[in-house]
């Protein structure tokens, strides 16, 4: 039986007896609503199709060439759009109706996947076509991801953001990371085109469900259209027919809007620190995973089944973290969710660097899955609470750009470090970096700053994170006297 998120309610404490960590408290019942349910179903269906194609594409390319360079180049083609289009895509998301943009992107991806599947059936799917479709689909995913994240605060009450983000992460984890892997490989064996037909179908389902969401979701109000008399007057002043701004002016406007989003993010210490922190830790995590297949073979003596089991353990942990995320964050506060996550991050790499026991490593992957889900919930909720609605796209896309940059660097770094200094060197470097990041960022996420951020006070949250009163905020004996982390603004 499929549980829909609109049927799940979250009880949010409101200070006093209902504050986090205290017993009792009536709380408020918050429904995520039918609009979020449609978006969740759309995203979950789309994630299943993405997972099918993600598994099938390396198999498809490997079936057409033995060149390691050609096969590995597919990863570069997939990541390149995230670096090229994340920032300008954020500008687009803030300029147009986000719902309509998502629908257009979905139908475009339906056409692209249908083209590739048909080419496979007719025997015309060469490497250039595969690369082209891969690049264009990922370019759409960059903008789609930014737009979908920007829509969540518009359809979900502020006090339900943790629950909503938990549902989104859980849905993607189940479909893309657990179901799609074995299913995509099995379908590919039957016929190489089937995973791509399936992906096209899931994009179509996503488009239909997103179309069913009622309303307009623009970041910036549409400017009033000038009347005929005004147009004539402007044309007369201009000395002729009114013309659109020249291309250099439009290009400068895009750069100006990207810079505006970047400057806003830089001024917010909590969000700035979280973005840089995730970028750095993505470098170490991607580097660690890039050589994990060698670690499991040479040190853990596991085969392909054992290698896959590690990721299954991580996915199970992620599902658990997604399901319990909002309750865990309320219980331990967002501050300690972040801080414990920093410890888990360092411990994960330490275990991989030192342990020869497959069960210990599997437990580390399970814990890391819980941590990853909780961090995503807190990071997304903080950003959605603090970012002005008209800047959701640009701020979100800047975070995507930083995260993708970390992934790209890490993918190269892992092989280079291991090749020159030994297999475990990558994990020792990752451990040292994680410890340094934890020590540097620990004071930033103090209880006062994070609680004010959850209450929606942007300026106070930034000021509090700069303050040096962290120890007094964390050591107060009266828990109920602290600002309620999930207090209603």
Automatic annotation (TrEMBL):
<feature type="region of interest" description="Disordered">
    <location>
        <begin position="465"/>
        <end position="489"/>
    </location>
</feature>
<protein>
    <submittedName>
        <fullName>MFS transporter</fullName>
    </submittedName>
</protein>
<dbReference type="InterPro" id="IPR020846">
    <property type="entry name" value="MFS_dom"/>
</dbReference>
<feature type="transmembrane region" description="Helical">
    <location>
        <begin position="400"/>
        <end position="421"/>
    </location>
</feature>
<feature type="transmembrane region" description="Helical">
    <location>
        <begin position="359"/>
        <end position="379"/>
    </location>
</feature>
<dbReference type="Pfam" id="PF07690">
    <property type="entry name" value="MFS_1"/>
</dbReference>
<feature type="transmembrane region" description="Helical">
    <location>
        <begin position="39"/>
        <end position="61"/>
    </location>
</feature>
<keyword id="KW-0812">Transmembrane</keyword>
<feature type="domain" description="Major facilitator superfamily (MFS) profile">
    <location>
        <begin position="35"/>
        <end position="449"/>
    </location>
</feature>
<feature type="transmembrane region" description="Helical">
    <location>
        <begin position="427"/>
        <end position="445"/>
    </location>
</feature>
<keyword id="KW-1003">Cell membrane</keyword>
<feature type="compositionally biased region" description="Low complexity">
    <location>
        <begin position="465"/>
        <end position="481"/>
    </location>
</feature>
<dbReference type="InterPro" id="IPR036259">
    <property type="entry name" value="MFS_trans_sf"/>
</dbReference>
<feature type="transmembrane region" description="Helical">
    <location>
        <begin position="307"/>
        <end position="324"/>
    </location>
</feature>
<feature type="transmembrane region" description="Helical">
    <location>
        <begin position="336"/>
        <end position="353"/>
    </location>
</feature>
<feature type="transmembrane region" description="Helical">
    <location>
        <begin position="167"/>
        <end position="194"/>
    </location>
</feature>
<keyword id="KW-0472">Membrane</keyword>
<feature type="transmembrane region" description="Helical">
    <location>
        <begin position="73"/>
        <end position="92"/>
    </location>
</feature>
<dbReference type="InterPro" id="IPR011701">
    <property type="entry name" value="MFS"/>
</dbReference>
<keyword id="KW-1133">Transmembrane helix</keyword>
<feature type="transmembrane region" description="Helical">
    <location>
        <begin position="273"/>
        <end position="295"/>
    </location>
</feature>
